[in-house]
Write a structure and sequence with these properties.
heterodimer, A: MetI-like fold, 15 helices, about 70% helix, globular, B: mainly alpha, two-stranded antiparallel sheet, flat
């Protein structure tokens, strides 16, 4: 970033602002850090004061117990599998639709686009009862397909991707068409690669959404073999109302992959979030 | 431009068909299915029988419905303004020009990517009386009381709102931050030439420039907060009693615990109507940035 006026101009309260920001950041991280410390305490530890949680003894035996004796990796795998397939299908479906809306002329284009956008106003949470009935009558409750399919037709993806495809110059499209390029090749080899950043951002946002989705898997899944992480964790925790330490280890194991992924993909995640604020 | 023919109309079909089918099946069809269900005595076991508006009449005279609706509204009223102001404050902090910038942004955002199940469990454990870290810290700063956070209605609300803010404010912070970084530098340079102070720049440039995104965040947040469910189910399960039960939790209980799907569908439909009205208000008030259609 270039030197802005606001940064060059001396700010007498700068140290105070940075200090407040620093304390706020610590406050935001505190519960997470605390979770990791508790997850490493020996089973049966009774801590009478807050500081005890942060002091030794530590042990990794909880991790060993959980990894050996619980389904946490199965839940992680289910969440990952459902998230990955949902993301892949969403990207294919929304980018193809966005391509048609951005680069093709056809009658009722505008009306159809509005029809798709109207979906933004349909609150999924208020529609779970009929959705449950529909997915049930299709025989898809308690299946991977039942977890994945209801999430794939997200209008927001079409909007974001269309606004990026609109940025691909039409002259490029026209000249490729004159060279005999098919619509599909145009979409696949020209437009899609040029909008890579937006596709990645939509993909990451979709994946996070699916990974953390609670309500639908909670309703649609009965078999423990199909539990996703958000559903598996409360089921596990409810079996341990006396000790908090093993459930905290499960929580820590569940959080590690997302925290690591965040550190790797921070730029794309932030980009995805900021796109989601752009509507129309 | 030449007139469009049926051939032009057919070309997008392979690109739109799959999305169209999925969208109609899982987004549009549920709206009509839900309406149908709300007019029927629709349970998992019993015969389905048309009963007209009976569910709606019963819902509107059901004190539990109104309590849940009131709880949800209370949550929206308390959490939304706090959320927007906190998000703005955090964005300003994350925009400070320091080497810690990435650290600030990451710290404020990381809770948003954690599962609601993790967040809720950590919160329950932290808020325990006697052994919880929150009460321990309060005692460390000299407070002698031993609040029962989740067993006292008002404190349960405070807890739920605090947890929700901590968990979700990061998304809105990023939206504010993006807008902050998009403010044209020339505006500040011009103000500098005019001899404006930092405070004047903040009130007369930064804040007005953030107004459109702030309005959008506010409206999106109202819609999102009306659908509050998972963290309440997991932290208080609507308790103590039913004092924190939101509308979606009541719908869930009627539908999936008492198997009265028709009644639950009628409540869903009323909620849908409320959210639709809010969406339309959003379209009207959202300005250019908030216009979805």
């Amino acid at each position: 970033m270039s030197q802005s006026v606001l940064t060059t101009k001396r700010d007498p309260f700068r140290w105070l602002k940075v200090s407040i920001a620093f304390l706020s950041a610590l406050a935001f991280l505190f519960p997470i850090v605390w979770m990791f410390f508790v997850s490493m305490k020996p089973e049966g530890t009774a801590a009478s004061s807050a500081i005890d949680w942060f002091l030794p003894p530590y042990t990794f035996s909880n991790y060993v117990n959980i990894i050996a004796g619980s389904d946490v990796f199965l839940w992680i795998w289910n969440s990952f599998f459902v998230g990955a397939v949902t993301t892949l299908l969403t990207l294919v479906l929304t980018s193809m639709a966005a391509f048609a809306f951005s680069k093709m002329r056809f009658r009722y284009r505008k009306a159809l686009y509005l029809f798709f956008l109207a979906g933004l106003m349909v609150p999924g949470e208020a529609m779970i009862i009929p959705l449950y009935e529909i997915v049930g009558s299709m025989g898809l409750l308690d299946t991977y397909a039942g977890l994945i399919l209801p999430g794939i037709a997200a209008p927001l993806g079409v909007i974001i991707l269309k606004s990026f495809f609109d940025g691909v110059p039409n002259e490029l499209i026209e000249s490729a068409r004159l060279d005999g390029c098919s619509d599909f090749r145009l979409y696949w080899s020209i437009v899609l690669p040029l909008a890579k950043a937006a596709v990645a951002a939509v993909g990451i946002l979709t994946f996070i959404g699916s990974w953390n989705n609670f309500l639908w898997p909670y309703l649609a899944i009965i078999s423990e073999a199909l539990y996703t992480l958000p559903v598996g964790i409360p089921m596990f925790n409810s079996n341990y109302s006396e000790t908090y330490i093993l459930p905290m280890t499960v929580n820590a194991i569940a959080s590690l992959p997302v925290i690591i992924a965040f550190l790797f993909f921070e730029k794309q995640i932030v980009k995805g979030v900021s796109f989601s604020g752009i509507k129309g | 431009m030449k007139k469009l023919t049926w051939k032009d109309d057919l070309r997008p079909v392979p690109f739109l068909l799959a999305f169209f089918v999925a969208y109609v099946l899982f987004t549009i069809y549920p709206i009509f299915k839900g309406m149908q269900m709300s007019f029927f005595n629709w349970t998992l076991i019993e015969q389905q029988e048309f009963i007209g508006m009976t569910h709606y009449i019963n819902v509107l005279s059901d004190p539990n419905f109104w309590e849940a609706f009131g709880n949800t509204s209370l949550f929206v009223l308390l959490s939304t303004p706090t959320m927007v102001i906190l998000a703005l404050g955090l964005a300003l902090m994350a925009n400070l020009n320091t080497r810690l910038q990435t650290f600030f942004r990451g710290s404020f955002f990381i809770p948003s990517i954690l599962s609601v199940s993790v967040i809720s469990f950590v919160a329950i454990f932290m808020l325990q009386p006697y052994t919880g870290v929150v009460n321990n810290l309060l005692q460390a700063v000299g407070l002698d009381a031993e609040p029962f956070w989740l067993a006292t209605p008002s404190l349960a609300w405070v807890s739920i709102i605090a947890v929700t803010l901590w968990w979700t404010v990061g998304f809105n912070m990023i939206l504010f931050l993006t807008a902050l970084q998009g403010i044209p530098e020339e505006l500040y340079e011009a103000a500098e030439v005019d001899g404006a102070t930092r405070q004047q720049m903040f009130w007369q440039i930064t804040l007005p420039q953030l107004l459109p995104i702030g309005r959008l965040i506010l409206l999106l947040q109202v819609l999102a907060s009306f659908k509050v469910f998972a963290q309440i189910l997991l932290i208080t399960d609507g308790g103590p009693g039913t004092t924190t039960r939101p509308i979606i939790l009541y719908i869930y209980e009627m539908g999936f615990q008492r198997y009265d799907l028709g009644y639950a569908a009628a409540m869903s439909y009323l909620l849908f109507m409320v959210l639709l009205v809010l969406s339309v208000i959003q379209l009207r008030l959202g300005g250019k940035e908030g216009r979805m259609l």
